[in-house]
Write a structure and sequence with these properties.
By secondary structure, the chain is of the alpha+beta class. The protein contains 3 helices and 10 strands, in the order αααββββββββββ. It binds FE2/S2 (inorganic) cluster (FES).
Amino acid sequence: MAQQDNTPDWKIDFPYSTVETLQVSRRQFAKFLCLVSGGLMAGSGLVAIKSSFFPERKVEGEHFVCNTAALPVGGTRSFTLPGSTVPYILIHLENDEWRAYEQKCTHLSCAVFYKPGTGRIECPCHNGWFDALTGEVVQGPPPRPLPALNVIVKGDAVYVTGQQPA
Ligand code: FES
């Protein structure tokens, strides 16, 4: 007479132990690596193509941002230009000068913020810092200065224009 076996049917159909199911074969791991590498390569290629074939449009003309009274010394105002989604920041520095920069860090595009009283612009993502007077990098990983706009104060109105090449 055959011995009664208490093994459930599913275990007979799927005869693998838990340890075996958790193991990743070399082939599976290689597939995963290829997939991730391919995805990264495709993403980098798209970014390279976009920046090569669709460069950022130059800022044309003069654009009103705000009235001088709306921005006290040490104050900032975020703005975009018509027809563009690029974020900018207008800064009324403590020495009464005005500056406007792209509000995207040149490292990995985090938003940057002016730290009143320090003369510096901070990128909180990786502790990057820029000089608020020049836009130059003073600390951290950003590879380039912040792109700037010219600021023109006419009477009580503040305008920006595209930066002229030096
Ligand atoms: S994104 Fe600004 S320092 Fe990294």
